[in-house]
UniProtKB/TrEMBL annotation, chain A:
The chain crosses the membrane at residues 69-92, 239-257, 269-289, 461-480. Residues 1-50 are annotated as: Disordered. Residues 11-33 have a biased composition (Pro residues). The keyword Transmembrane helix applies. Keywords: Membrane, Transmembrane, Transmembrane helix. This is Secreted protein.
Length: 488, 347
């Protein structure tokens, strides 16, 4: 029936008269489709739209079995192809996010923590060097230089990985600009110290105030990177519900087609359709199982390693800040005070001693949290070690404060940066830092293991889903085609 | 013909016009002269103007440096002194950043024996103020080592005394009328005056000769230098284009800003300016001191009269015995030979 129109359309319609005819009869030609259908010979139907024609043709086709089979075949193939495409798309997204977690955002947030730590470390070393006198100790010099090197190295990586125009990029370029200014001030402080000029101390104070700006920048960078890690996790973990839903629909559709087939022909198996169903089912299973395993790995890396890592990094930064404040208490000798409390409890306290206490309290809570998060004794051991050293540190600090309060400045100094025999807090801080570094290395390895496992569970899923879905679609078409051929 | 007549008439009018102009100018000058004269006098002789202002202020509280209690006027060993004795330590607010006055020489006693032990070097503060503080501790407690030094930023000197965080402040502190309302001072132990410190070859030649126009000048927060800068900028002694916004916790921080090119000049006490110049051969003290100032030991305003008398008694002895030695040890190399401690008069 459709042949009639198609057949009559092109060959018999003499194009020569129709072409001028269209512009010749403009008055009664308001319908929009006279040109789309140059089939002028048929005066009645040409007024209908192409869409209406198509629907009509489909309706007509659906009334015959081969027509219906054609429609069913097309819909099934389309369903399977869409299912495959959505699966590939959703899994590619999750795979990218998981890959970002493992290879991008976690290393970057680690780097940001390292930048922060390195800067604080260098600043603490510089103030220790100042306390020690004009000739800074080899130790403090080495720590300072290592801190500066690490910070500038990590800033290069961070700069390479930051998106142009982002807040991180600006923070990083600020840090890159301030870093040489800071080192310049420290070198001037050293040169003046060596000459025995108090100007050295003034430079160091200025350098320290610059560093406070840099530390605030580094902290915000760290927070941004931590946020990015969170959002990558959030992108990688949710179940691919659309793909799963489409899979269920595709399997359902294939099942229905086979049941229909069985009803009409009494044939149990249609090889093509069965193959298609099998293909779709395999993709579905792979999808659900693969993603569940990946999710488990990511959850594991998040719940254990990343949370531990964040806690440990925070603890390490708190211990560094506490150490820096402890030094500055002695450098400033009570020069800076601040008001705390309200009303009758209001009193003025030494700014740096107050900050030291606040950071030590933070260190205590972070260490407690880290110990709780540690999932095995081997992971808890370095944290316990750090806690033990922190307690000694607190005790020794009290002795140093008491000496300073009693006017024994030298005694206080010895207790803070003195030689091993004088039992200074320096040793405790070094031990805490080393223990935390060890714990961080451990947790990093654990993270790579768990997140790597998670990522590899999704390996090949995208390509597999695409290939299998294509095969399944072909199967569906073949299966339907086999039935269709019975009508020829 | 016509043209010649025209010229002639113009010449006639020209004479009248010229006379009119001369008259007008004379009138303008006559009107303006009385106004410009005081202004003109203010420029170059602003120092005198400021000095007059100072005198006026000084007259209001009659020479601040002569307002302390005479040792003979009462008890030398009252509650305030007893409190220190009972504690066994004298708590003194000092500076640790002023070469010659109160500072920590990072290389003192440096024996170079090893890195670990270098921490035990150079923690002692040194300087003219430190010597005086030790002399006070020795008199009150019998031991000059029974002393706790607290580093005090310039603008924290008065609050620390008021809060009782320190017994006294011995820190190049100028006795002035405003401060006398908040704390008490001992008799003067040193005379100085505000001066300008500037890089050599900067073209800055003094405080009130206009060479600070368009320059950035640094001073310490809560210092007499800043008070003078603000007052003189307000009354026009300083050019309006002088930028005095940079203030720092300690006068030495000004030298840091100067070396970094963030300011062009520093105003501080001459005695401190000299110790800054000693740390940087490329800067110099320029111009004459534009104020007369006296350093005193600051103590609590109320309930410390016995301590003030006691310190004044100690200073009586110290001027005769100790002052010159300390000056020669710490200040002579920066300030040159001294004519001795300032004259003393009590209230």
């Amino acid at each position: 029936m459709t042949y009639q129109q198609q057949g009559g359309a092109a060959p018999p319609g003499p194009p020569v008269p129709t072409m001028p005819a269209a512009p010749a009869v403009p008055p009664q030609a308001p319908p929009p489709e006279p040109r789309s259908r140059p089939a002028a010979p048929d005066p009645g139907p040409p007024r209908r739209t192409a869409w209406a024609e198509g629907v009509d043709r489909l309706r007509a086709a659906a009334t015959t079995e081969p027509g219906r089979l054609r429609v069913i075949g097309a819909v099934l193939a389309l369903l399977v192809v869409v299912f495959g495409a959505v699966t590939a798309w959703q899994m590619a997204e999750r795979q990218t996010a998981a890959d970002d977690v493992l290879n991008r955002s976690q290393p970057l947030s680690s780097d940001a923590a390292e930048i922060y730590r390195a800067l604080a470390d260098a600043n603490t070393a510089a103030s220790s060097g100042f306390l020690a006198g004009g000739q800074e100790t080899a130790d403090s010099r080495r720590t300072y230089e290592a801190g500066m090197k690490l910070a500038s190295d990590k800033l290069v990586t961070a700069a390479a990985n930051s998106e142009p125009g982002s807040a991180s990029e600006k923070t990083i370029s600020d840090l890159n600009r301030l870093l040489p200014q800071y080192t310049g001030l420290v070198e001037r402080a050293r040169a003046n110290n060596r000459q025995g000029f108090p100007l050295g101390g003034a430079y160091l104070r200025y350098a320290n105030s610059k560093m406070q700006i840099m530390l605030a920048d580094a902290e915000s960078l760290y927070e941004v990177e931590k946020g990015r890690l969170r959002s990558d996790y959030a992108d990688a973990k949710p179940y691919p519900w659309i793909a799963i839903g489409l899979g269920v629909v595709a399997v359902g559709g294939l099942g229905w087609a086979q049941r229909r087939n069985y009803r009409r022909t009494n044939r149990v198996l249609n090889h093509g359709l069965v193959a298609a169903t099998a293909g779709v089912t395999v993709v579905m299973l792979w999808l659900v199982v693969g993603h569940s395993v990946a999710r488990a790995g990511l959850n594991e890396s998040d719940a254990h390693a990343v949370r531990s890592l964040n806690t440990l990094n925070d603890a390490r930064i708190a211990s560094l800040k506490a150490r820096g404040n402890e030094n500055l208490t002695l450098v400033s000798r009570g020069a800076e005070t601040k008001e705390v409390g309200k009303g009758e409890n209001k009193k003025s306290v030494d700014t740096f001693d107050y900050d030291y206490k606040a950071q030590m309290a933070l260190l205590t809570t972070e260490l407690r949290a880290a110990e709780k998060l540690a999932d095995d004794p081997a992971g808890a051991a370095p944290v316990q070690d750090a806690t033990k050293n922190m307690l000694v540190w607190k005790e020794r600090h009290e002795v140093a404060r008491a000496a300073d309060e009693a006017g024994d400045y030298q005694g206080a100094l010895d207790k803070v940066i003195g030689s091993e025999a004088q039992e200074p807090t320096r040793v405790c801080f070094d031990n805490v830092d080393a223990a935390l570094a060890k714990a961080i290395t451990r947790e990093k390895a654990e993270f790579r293991q768990a997140a790597g496992d998670g990522l590899s569970a999704m390996n090949g899923l995208v390509e597999g889903a695409a290939v299998l879905a294509a095969l399944a679609a072909a199967g569906a078409l073949l299966g339907i085609g086999r039935r269709l051929s019975e009508y020829r | 013909m016509n043209a010649r007549r025209m010229r002639a008439s113009l010449r006639g009018w020209g004479g009248v016009g010229a006379m009119a102009v001369v008259c007008a100018l004379a009138a303008v000058f006559a009107l303006l002269l009385p106004r410009t004269q005081p202004g003109g006098a203010d420029g170059p002789t602003g120092g005198r103007g400021a000095a007059q202002g100072d005198q006026a202020r000084a007259e209001a509280c009659e020479k601040p440096e002569e307002r302390s209690l005479a040792p003979s006027s009462g008890d030398l060993d009252g509650a305030a002194v007893q409190k220190i004795r009972k504690r066994g330590k004298l708590v003194v607010g000092v500076d640790q950043n002023s070469l010659g006055w109160g500072y920590r020489d990072p290389n003192s006693a440096s024996n170079g024996s090893g890195s670990k032990d270098s921490a035990s070097n150079g923690s002692d503060l040194k300087g003219f103020d430190i010597d005086l503080a030790r002399a006070i501790a020795k008199d009150i407690l019998g031991d000059e080592t029974q002393i706790i030094f607290r580093a005090v930023p310039t603008d924290q000197r008065i609050p620390k005394i008021q809060e009782g965080k320190v017994d006294m402040v011995v820190r190049t502190m100028t006795i002035d009328c405003d401060r006398l309302k908040l704390v008490s001072f001992s008799s003067p132990y040193f005379q100085t005056g505000q001066q300008v410190l500037a890089p050599k070859g900067s073209g800055i030649t003094g405080y009130d000769d206009g060479s600070l126009a368009g320059k950035r000048v640094c001073s310490a927060k809560g210092s007499t230098a800043l008070e003078h800068l603000e007052a003189d900028k307000a009354d026009g002694t300083l050019p309006a284009s002088t930028n005095i916004r940079t203030t720092v916790p300690n006068q030495l921080d000004c030298l840091v800003r100067l070396q970094l090119g963030e300011v062009d000049a520093v105003v501080t006490d001459g005695a401190l300016a000299a110790s800054q110049a000693a740390q940087d051969p490329t800067v110099q003290v320029v111009g004459e001191p534009f104020t007369d100032e006296f350093y005193g030991v600051a103590m609590k305003k109320d309930g410390a009269d016995d301590l003030i008398r006691r310190v004044n008694q100690i200073l009586e002895d110290y001027r005769k015995n100790g002052w010159q030695t300390s000056y020669d040890d710490h200040l002579k190399k920066y300030l040159g030979a001294s004519s001795g401690p300032p004259e003393v008069a009590y209230k």
